[in-house]
C-alpha cells in the first residue's frame, strides 16, 4: 500500500453544518487518507460518524485514520494516528494487526521518528512546518529533519502544520509523501472549492 498524496484531517468546528459534503468533496478531489479528528466525549456520535466516513473512504478508495483512539479504530477496522501522549504504538499495532496504517506524531525530532519506526509505525509525521491554526504552539519542523529522516528511515514522511497550496511544493520536492491539511482545505466557501483545492494539492504529487 503506497502512502502518498493529500491527507485530509477533519475539524469539527470548521466543518459544522457541512461535515459530510466537504469530506466527500476532499475525497472526490483525490485525498488518499482521511483522518477523523474529534476530541469530544460523545462516543455514540463518534462511532456513527467514523462508520459513515469509513464507507465514504471505501467508495473513493481512500484510507480512514482515527486520531488518538486505537479502540475506535479497531471497532471499525481502520488505522490510527497516535500523538506522543496516546499510549505505546506497539499496543496499537497488536490491537489493529500488522496491515493497519498507524501513524506517529514526531514533532521535529528524528529520535522520535526512529523510535516509531522500531515500534511498527506505517508513517512518521513532522510538524508544524508553518504557522498553524490547528497546532499554534507546536514545535517547528524544517526541511532538514525531512532530509535526515529519509537518510535513516525507510518510511513515508507526513508533514503537518500550516500547509497551504502556496508553501507545499518544496515539502514534496524534498521527499514528503503525505501533506496533512486541515484549514487550507476545509475553510472553503463551498464543497466545489474544497474539491478544487484537493485536486490542486493532489497535483503536487504528479
How would you characterize this protein structure?
With 206 residues, the chain is an alpha/beta fold. The protein has helices at 19-28, 43-59, 70-76, 89-96, 110-118, 143-152, 169-173, 183-186, 191-203, and strands at 5-9, 33-36, 63-67, 79-82, 102-105, 123-126, 157-160, 178-181. Strands 1-2-3-4-5-6-7-8 form an eight-stranded parallel barrel, surrounded by seven helices. Helix 4 links the parallel strand 4 and strand 5 (102-105). Helix 1 packs parallel to helix 9. The radius of gyration is 16 Å and the shape is globular.
Task: Note the beta-strand portion.
Answer: 15-25%
SS summary, helix count: 9
Biggest β-sheet description: 8 strands, parallel, barrel
Name the helicity range: 40-55%
The H-and-E topology, N to C, reads as: EHEHEHEHEHEHEHEHH
Q: What is the 3D shape?
A: globular
Briefly summarize what is shown.
By secondary structure, the protein is α/β, with parallel strands linked by helices. The chain has helices spanning 19-28, 43-59, 70-76, 89-96, 110-118, 143-152, 169-173, 183-186, 191-203; strands spanning 5-9, 33-36, 63-67, 79-82, 102-105, 123-126, 157-160, 178-181.
Please outline the helices and strands.
Blueprint: E1 5-9, H1 19-28, E2 33-36, H2 43-59, E3 63-67, H3 70-76, E4 79-82, H4 89-96, E5 102-105, H5 110-118, E6 123-126, H6 143-152, E7 157-160, H7 169-173, E8 178-181, H8 183-186, H9 191-203
Salient structural properties:
206 residues; alpha/beta; eight-stranded parallel barrel; 9 helices
